[in-house]
Amino acid sequence: MAIMPFPEIDPIAFSLGPLSIHWYGLAYVAGIMLGWYYARQIAGNNKLWPGDVSPITKVQLDDFIIWVALGIVLGGRIGYILFYDMPAVIENPIRAIQIWNGGMSFHGGLMGTTIAMAIFARRNSVPIWSLFDIVAAVVPIGLFCGRIANFINGELWGRLTDAPWGMVFCNQYIERNNGYCPGGDFVRHPSQLYEAGLEGIVLLLVLAVLIYGFRALKSPGFITGVFVCGYALSRIFVEFFREPDAQLGYLLGTNWLTMGMVLSTPMVLLGIWAMLRARRQAALQH
């Protein structure tokens, strides 16, 4: 029996006539807006940057928010289709725009945002690695908001467990909307909260300490490397507790290799490369 009860929270935050506003959508808005505010504080502090001059103005950052929002949403949805749901979309193409069927992929959102950053940096003469660093510093805020929304929705639950903090991911709202409890009447790891803690809170604090305590932004690309590597390691760890997507299951062996692990493993190497590159460039400049 689960010791911790799953909260009775309606996935619909509120309704405006026939329009229902879900917590999941509000999480995306909150993550982008809070990230934008934090990014403005970082960009406005010249002492954090090489030569004590910020590489981007607040006005440019305000323009960039539209680019990054499009990169997150389009990349996240396209990535989910390509990595997790392609057979179902081929069979029923309209499913591609049904974001309630599967949702978004972080790895796809990362690629979409990277493309948006590259185009924006080129068009506005902003050093691309410094732009990467700004975004990397604030992404954990969005990850935290998104994982909390996943928890409220009772989705992306964990594997079966007998841990005292295990939960049955069902309440009256989920059962009413789905006609049943998608996760079954089983006690599971609240893996969404594990991800919110590691990918969100812990990673945000680590990056903040590096930025403000060690002036890591003065080595363009280092914060990006720490974020990419930190996220990947956190995700791989949590995948041992998270139930894999039903349409994919385990990719190899029994109960261990998942698509999340496969997509995250190259990120560890990429993050290490970015950190080494940043340190090497900083050494050459001195």
Automatic annotation (TrEMBL):
Q: What EC identifiers does the entry list?
A: 2.5.1.145
Q: Mind telling me which GO cellular component terms the entry cites?
A: plasma membrane
| Annotated keywords | Cell membrane, Glycosyltransferase, Lipoprotein, Membrane, Transferase, Transmembrane, Transmembrane helix
Name the Gene Ontology molecular function terms of this record: phosphatidylglycerol-prolipoprotein diacylglyceryl transferase activity
* Transmembrane stretches, start-end: 20-39, 64-84, 104-121, 128-149, 196-214, 221-238, 250-276
Q: Which residues form a coiled coil?
A: none
Q: Does the keyword Metal-binding apply?
A: no
Q: What class of enzyme is it?
A: transferase
Which membrane topology describes this protein? Answer: Multi-pass membrane protein
Q: Any idea which positions bind a 1,2-diacyl-sn-glycero-3-phospho-(1'-sn-glycerol)? A: R147
Q: Does the keyword Lipoprotein apply?
A: yes
Q: Superkingdom of the source?
A: Bacteria
Compartments in which it is found: Cell membrane
Single GO biological process annotation from the record: lipoprotein biosynthetic process
InterPro entries, sorted: Lgt
Which pathway is this protein assigned to?
A: Protein modification; lipoprotein biosynthesis (diacylglyceryl transfer)
Annotated family: Belongs to the Lgt family.
Record's function text = Catalyzes the transfer of the diacylglyceryl group from phosphatidylglycerol to the sulfhydryl group of the N-terminal cysteine of a prolipoprotein, the first step in the formation of mature lipoproteins.
The name of this protein is Phosphatidylglycerol--prolipoprotein diacylglyceryl transferase
Species of the source: Rhizobium grahamii CCGE 502
Name of the gene: lgt
